[in-house]
């Protein structure tokens, strides 16, 4: 190699301050095309990202090559959402060059914070499910597991939330507007994805009945790859996202007819497939485009997986030993029928063999029991869009129902529950049932959720396949959610117990004994205070509100949903406001109630609750009679970046869903890891958090899942009676009803009051109110004793080792995927 290129090559991989600085200057000029004097902050962000990317590429190729040479079994994580957030700090931190980069920028007169803040937040997900996928990518790479993420490269991520007069207003989120320096476009990695058309039957070469899908419309899926940097920078995995492209033959047909506009329209329509992320979380709205998105990315991913497999193999017998495919929720469940189609129609396998391979390859994660979130697509629509798949689904169903135990027992009710087709009303394909049947393992995401799966939605499947359901309690990556988001606390922790916790969070248990160390407690408080100052400044910038650093930062950040019960929190806020006004001479512990979270644009009730919180904030924050002892803020546009600022500063973590309704939660884990004390119901992973931190270090309240179930089964309860018997609740509701917070529109909150009374209070807000207030009071009392509070906070942080996504991913790897770490060989030469 020419010496000049060789030295540049070395430079590209060097991690010292001088090389970084030289790379920045070179990239700024030759790639971003700017002069240092004219460069904007965004230019510098692109420059730094490109220089960092350079330092990743060789190792990325080494990793990929090692997987290839070892013919390692890979795991493919198929997810409609990856909520990755910003990548610059993540990459620098995982590569271990954060300080070097800061110094290099410093020498150029630039601030690292400004550069970091210029990166858009990649919001390719709605909430917990998408963020879990992103944490799993980090954990797989950090542990050297051959893991690939597959999803959609949405041009528009989750909408940007703004408030207009306290109402949520959605704006498009254009994260790609100025380009994305992390991704590599792969115009050569293109797969056709078919829609519509019809199925033709014919006889194959041995005279067997066979099928082909004809007269379909085609769209191309084009790959974009993003390197996923594991901790330590040894393993760099790949996130492959698909973008829709119109096929050129499709266009030319129209051009020949002279129908130029029609051709362009068709192109736009095909490319709409990857245009926008559906903004619904835990509820489905059943739109055709959504179904097409699901098939689009699943089909492209499966074609890509088979192509990779066929580089090493000539028969499919070994596919389950070389590929594990994890379905993140039912969104990619059509993949079961698609793999059957590819194996049978394209590769000539017999049904039984194809089915055996499919089941052994797929596994499915369920994330919700809410009936409205369990995808069920109209048979007529599936038939029209994917005619061959509908046939395959019918056949899977027929074979299964014929052999099922329920059939043997003549139990028709059970048979109809097991069917892939819901025959009630307009017939629908139950994607959960398809995913269950086509997988060798099915998991829930917390112990409670998994038990409820067995008892409720999948009870009949569980009876049929008692070994299939398994639990994999969710986890979070300690790299992003402690090391990066909370440098103050993570430096303190490392100074006492070393850095081992970063890649082995179990080690954080060593902090438990420090809970009794008065000096450590003081330092722990100092770190929290620093984070609270940072959040207070953010609150002031975002809302104009000044909050007291010494107040309790009581945080509820998550998607806005009735089952998550932000309403319960705001009712307590109003009750507390009244108490403070009634008792002005009491020395109150100041409280700042902090809310953040988006509502699905069509979810009117959720949007009304946001407006209520903002209306309550307006009154409370400007009432001199509470002497600033109570503040309420609703931070707009909650996303990963905002979470990284809010979570480290929290004193209280609100995890107050109606028991039995939150599958797991992961915000609960992030907040506890950062030393917040949980006020929560026995729901989702809260149950396991209590086990880990101990019942004395968490404020549990409310009905249990079993009690909720019994209450509902016995015809519900009478919320009016509950309200009448609780003066604080009655007064809060009366104020809302009479327009105390909405003088401009006294009836604004009628729908909320109606839901809580005549509507039967489905989410049991009134039923849990009294006990919730008790838990809140207990927390406020404890906060007065700052030593005791800090002791419990430290125990919370120290007890969260088990909630690392490294542990979760390891359980999947050993118990579901049978995938093992591969150590990449770095020969220092790279791969050009
Ligand atoms: O609501 C659940 C959370 O409880 C859970 O922690 C998260 C990750 O497992 O998934 C959330 N979820 C469920 N997001 N979408 C759904 C339904 O499609």
TrEMBL record:
Transmembrane segments: none annotated. It catalyses: [(1->4)-alpha-D-glucosyl](n) + phosphate = [(1->4)-alpha-D-glucosyl](n-1) + alpha-D-glucose 1-phosphate. Its cofactor is pyridoxal 5'-phosphate. InterPro entries: Glycg_phsphrylas, Glyco_trans_35, Pyridoxal_P_attach_site. One of its GO terms (molecular function) is pyridoxal phosphate binding. One of its GO terms (cellular component) is cytoplasm. NCBIfam families: P_ylase (TIGR02093). This is Alpha-1,4 glucan phosphorylase.
